[in-house]
Write a structure and sequence with these properties.
This protein is an alpha/beta fold. The protein has 18 helices and 14 strands. The strands form 3 sheets. A 7-stranded mixed sheet has the order 8-7-6-9-10-14-13, sandwiched between helices. It has a 5-stranded antiparallel sheet with strand order 2-3-1-4-5. A hairpin with a 2-residue loop joins strand 4 and strand 5. The N terminus is likely disordered. The structure holds S-adenosylmethionine.
């Protein structure tokens, strides 16, 4: 009884999943289902990615029983290990859980894909992390290779690349995004430093300290010289800023609740690294402009990104409270954000012009015969559909990329509204 109470949500789920085998086990070794999909795989595009991922890892397979189970045809000890360590859509191989299954149990939220540090900050337009893990495998990236993200956003690719031991380099024009990516990937190295000043910060949460952001940020700077610890506590404050401005939550309550959850997530990160013996990839995230990337020609092994959503989402307006809290001049900053410059027709034209520059840069820095993945959808602007997908394919092909896969990603979003995006996989041929 006592044991049960002490178990964490994730551990209980593992127990349950393991015991479930017995529920439908016939007692006869069923060789047809040695590779079983995770329960959360529900869309056709996910099945396509699961298959592509196996192919990329050199695995021959056939799909058995109702599309949920696979049989590996060229099984060996090495391939089994590869499936266990790397895949993204599978729960078990020969009844042994994959690493990814264990990773997603480390979740402090109720949302299946917001495991580990992914949930930190309610950023709009986040990638689905499971898809990113699959894409990293599909484009053949291995431990030590480098993936580049020109619009790194909330840092989804950063976290997933790090877990697979892939070096990550990312830029985003928004300093708020840069902090998100850093906190999600760097805090694991400074957990002690974070814990050391926690009580003092909570103790000093007097109303007057919180009334001005300058006081808070000054206090953090006085308490630690480690930039990573400072970023962690900046983020904790920004979560409360966002909660109180968007959802009218009490600042102090929200701060303490989020801070504690963030700490638990960092502990999860540390634990999973140790449990699975992961060799984490290096991560470098900076403020930068995708139209002018500070990297050498032919220097990265892969690119995975989703550019600003045409002109549909105003990233500046979305995060205005946090950007202002950090002391940024939001009006000035707007000029560098792709997709929000100009009005009416000129907004679409400026968007296209900016994206052309970014695509040119992606082509320049990617090594030959390597892949760039762009996840993008058509936007609606002033009641009209803007054909961003077609524009992207045509322009990328003019640059010397070849479109090798175009996967329709149809999902049901908020209020069950259908949302369509495309996963475009390009190979740099020329
Ligand atoms: C669709 S979001 C990326 C979301 C990301 N894939 C994720 O999972 O969070 C697009 C991002 O592009 C950034 N952005 C806009 N203009 C930019 C520019 N000129 N250079 C670099 N990043 C830019 C925005 O700040 C935004 O974070």
């Amino acid at each position: 009884m006592e044991n049960k109470i002490l178990k964490k949500k994730g551990e209980i789920m593992i127990d349950r999943a393991e015991s479930q085998f017995w529920a439908y086990d016939t007692g006869i070794e069923d060789v047809k289902k040695n590779l079983v999909l995770l329960d959360n795989v529900q869309f056709i595009y996910e099945l396509s990615l699961a298959k592509l991922e196996l192919k990329a890892l050199g695995i021959d397979f056939e799909v058995t029983n109702g599309l949920r189970e696979f049989k590996v045809l060229n099984q060996s000890k090495e391939l089994k290990e590869l499936i266990k360590k790397k895949t993204s859509y599978f729960k078990t191989i020969d009844r042994e859980h994959t690493d990814y299954f264990h990773i997603i149990q480390k979740n402090q939220t109720r949302s299946v894909n917001q495991y580990l540090t992914h949930w930190i900050y309610p950023y709009k337009g986040k990638f689905h992390p499971q898809m990113i893990r699959a894409l990293l495998n599909i484009i053949g990236l291995k431990e030590g290779d480098t993936v580049f993200e020109p619009f790194s956003g909330s840092g989804t690719t950063a976290v997933e690349a790090q877990l697979l031991g892939i070096t990550f380099i990312g830029i985003d024009v928004s300093p708020l995004c840069v902090i998100q990516g850093k906190v999600k990937t760097e805090s694991i190295y400074v957990l002690d430093g974070i814990l050391k000043i926690r009580n003092e910060i909570v103790f000093k949460l007097e109303p007057n300290l919180f009334s001005t952001e300058a006081n808070y940020y000054r206090m953090i700077e006085n308490l630690t010289s480690d930039e990573r610890v400072r970023s962690f506590y900046k983020m904790a404050r920004l979560l409360a800023v966002s909660d109180s401005s968007r959802r009218n939550r009490d600042f102090r309550t929200s701060f303490i609740k989020n801070l504690n959850l963030m700490i638990e997530s960092i502990k999860d990160h540390v634990e999973i690294k140790e449990k699975l013996n992961l060799k984490l990839g290096n991560v470098k995230i900076e403020v930068g402009d995708s139209r002018n990337i500070k990297l050498l020609d032919n220097s990265v092994d892969g690119i995975i990104t989703s550019p600003p959503y045409s002109i549909a989402l105003d990233y500046v307006q979305n995060d205005i409270h946090s950007l202002k809290d950090l002391g940024y001049d939001v009006l000035k900053m707007r000029n560098d954000f792709i997709g929000v410059r100009g009005n009416g027709r000129s907004r679409v034209e400026l968007y296209n012009e900016d994206m052309k520059k970014s695509y040119f840069e992606m082509h320049r820095i990617l090594k030959s015969n390597r892949y760039a993945v762009i996840v993008i959808g058509n936007a609606t602007y002033q009641g009209k559909e803007v054909k961003t997908v077609q524009f992207t394919i045509e322009y990328m092909e003019r640059l010397g990329f070849k479109l090798v896969k175009n996967i329709n990603k149809i999902i049901f979003g908020l209020y069950n509204v259908m949302k369509k995006e495309n996963i475009l996989i390009f190979k740099k041929e020329k």
